[in-house]
Write a structure and sequence with these properties.
412 residues; nine-stranded parallel β-sheet; alpha/beta; Urease, subunit C, domain 1; binds fe (iii) ion; binds N-(iminomethyl)-L-glutamic acid; eight-stranded mixed β-sheet; globular; TIM Barrel
Length: 412
C-alpha cells in the first residue's frame, strides 16, 4: 500500500536521522522542507522531496495537503495514563489554598489514586486507559510511555503493568512500559519496609513477567531519598530495567545526580534545578525531560528550559498525563505552555516533543523525524501559515489527519 501526500506547505523535520538528540542551539533550526511531498510505502517513510514529486511512482492513495504542514508524530515519553477515577476535589482544594505536598500528607494525592486503583478491575482499567490512548492519538501522539505507580502493592503494580502490556498489544502506536512502584509510601508500611518490598519482591516479579522496559522512582523529599532511589535503580538494572527518574519536582532532591550517576535514560520534571544539576547533565547522556503541563496545573515554578538549552542540553518535553498533576495528554498544549511559560521557541518546543522525546524513549531510529526508513507515524495539520501558529493557536486542535504506520487513522 502506497500513500502520497503532496503539495505540503512545510514538511517538518524532514532530515537524515540525527545521530544524537538535537542539543542547544541546534533546537532552534528545525528543518522544514517547503512545498514538499512525502511518499509512504508499506507503513514506512520511503522518500520525500520538493514538488513536483518527480520520480514518485503512482500511489494507491494521494492526499492533497495544500496550505498544511506534515509533522512526525509526537512522542510522549512520560505518562501515568493507567489510573482510576479522578482528583478534581484536590484541584478545588488547591484553588482554596492547600498545597500539593500538603494534600499528599493528608492521604490525598498518589495515595488517593492508589486506593481507587486497588478497587478497580483490570478490565475497567484497561477500558479507561484505552480511551485515553485514543484521545491522545487524535492530538498527534504517535508513541507513548506508560508508568505504573498507582498500585503500591505487588498485586496492583502488576495489574497496572498487565494493562500496559494489553494496550501495547492492541493500540496502533508503540507503547513502552515503566515500573514506578516507588511512587509513594503506602500508609500501612514504613519506608524501610516498602523500599525493601520494591527491591526484593516487586522488581523481581515485574522482570520475571517481562512487564517493564524501565524503572522509575519519585526521588523527592517526603517520597524517596537519593539513597533509596539508588538502591532501587541498582536493583532495577540488575533485572534489566533501565532507569528513568522523577527528579527535582518539588525540591532540589538530588534526583538529577542519582540519575546521571546511573546513566538514566532521562530525568524528568526538573522544576527546581540549579547550575550544579545543569553542569552534571552536560557531561552525561541523560536527557532532561520537562513537563510544563504539571507545573502549570500545580501553579508551580517552571523548569529553567532556556538555561538548559543555552547550556547546550537536548531538552525533551512530555505530558505527564496523570490524575493528580497533569490531567491532560495533549502535546500541542504542552508545546504551547513550553513556549508561553518557559520561553522556548516553537522550533525548540517541537524538536523537544519529537526527535528529542524519541531519544528519551529510545525509539529515535523508528520515530521522531521524517527520515526514509522510519515508521510512517505522521500527522497533517489544518491549514496554517507557519509552524509558529501551532502553539500560538493554543487550545485549538490543529491535528487534522493522523497517519499511523502508513494507514489513515483519522481524518483525510
Ligand atoms: O509526575 N510527581 C510524581 N508523580 C506524578 C503525579 C502524581 C500524582 O499527583 O498523582 C507527576 O507529577
Ligand atoms: Fe510523572
Amino acid at each position: 500500500m502506497d500513500l502520497l501526500i503532496e503539495n505540503i506547505r512545510g514538511l517538518v523535520l524532514a532530515t537524515d536521522n540525527p545521530s544524537q538528540p538535537l542539543c542547544g542551539s541546534a533546537m532552534r533550526q528545525i528543518p522544514i522542507l517547503k512545498e514538499a511531498y512525502l511518499f509512504i510505502r508499506d507503513g514506512i517513510i520511503y522518500s520525500y522531496g520538493n514538488m513536483p514529486n518527480k520520480g514518485v511512482e503512482r500511489a494507491d492513495r494521494v492526499i492533497d495537503a495544500t496550505g498544511k504542514f506534515v509533522f512526525p508524530s509526537f512522542v510522549d515519553s512520560h505518562t501515568h495514563l493507567v489510573f482510576a477515577g479522578s482528583r478534581e476535589n484536590e484541584f478545588v482544594d488547591r484553588i482554596n489554598g492547600l498545597g500539593y505536598a500538603e494534600i499528599a500528607r493528608k492521604g490525598g494525592g498518589i495515595l488517593n489514586s492508589a486506593k481507587l486503583i486497588q478497587q478497580t478491575s483490570e478490565q475497567q482499567l484497561y477500558e479507561s486507559a484505552l480511551q485515553r490512548v485514543y484521545e491522545v492519538i487524535t492530538t498527534g501522539t504517535g508513541a507513548i510511555e506508560i508508568k505504573s505507580g498507582y498500585g503500591l502493592t505487588t498485586r496492583d503494580e502488576l495489574k497496572i503493568l498487565r494493562v500496559v502490556r494489553r494496550l501495547r498489544e492492541n493500540v496502533p502506536i508503540p507503547v513502552k512500559s515503566t515500573f514506578l512502584g516507588a511512587h509513594a509510601i503506602p500508609g500501612n508500611s514504613t519506608r524501610e519496609e516498602y523500599v525493601k518490598k520494591v527491591i526484593d519482591e516487586m522488581i523481581p516479579a515485574v522482570a520475571d513477567q517481562g512487564l517493564a522496559d524501565y524503572c522509575d522512582v519519585f526521588c523527592e523529599e517526603g517520597f524517596f531519598s537519593p539513597l533509596e532511589t539508588s538502591m532501587i535503580v541498582e536493583q532495577g538494572l540488575k533485572y534489566g530495567l533501565k532507569p528513568r527518574l522523577h527528579a527535582n519536582q518539588l525540591s532540589r532532591s538530588g534526583g538529577v545526580q542519582v540519575g546521571v550517576q546511573h546513566n538514566a535514560i532521562s530525568v524528568d520534571h526538573l522544576e527546581t534545578v540549579g547550575d550544579e544539576e545543569i553542569e552534571m547533565l552536560k557531561n552525561s547522556s541523560t536527557i532532561p525531560t520537562l513537563l510544563p503541563a504539571a507545573a502549570f496545573f500545580l501553579d508551580m515554578h517552571f523548569p529553567p528550559a532556556k538555561r538548559m538549552i543555552e547550556a547546550g542540553l537536548p531538552v525533551a518535553l512530555a505530558s505527564d498525563y496523570n490524575p493528580g498533576s497533569s490531567p491532560t495528554g495533549n502535546i500541542p498544549l504542552v508545546i504551547a505552555l513550553a513556549c508561553i511559560k518557559m520561553k522556548m521557541t516553537p522550533s525548540e518546543a517541537i524538536v523537544a516533543a519529537t526527535i528529542n522525546a524519541a531519544w528519551a524513549l529510545e525509539c529515535h531510529n523508528e520515530l521522531g523525524t521524517i527520515s526514509p526508513g522510519k515508521r510512517a507515524n505522521v500527522f497533517i495539520t489544518k491549514p496554517m501559515p507557519t509552524i509558529n501558529y501551532l502553539p500560538y493557536a493554543f487550545g485549538s486542535n490543529l491535528v487534522e489527519t493522523v497517519i499511523l504506520k502508513g494507514q489513515i487513522f483519522r481524518g483525510g
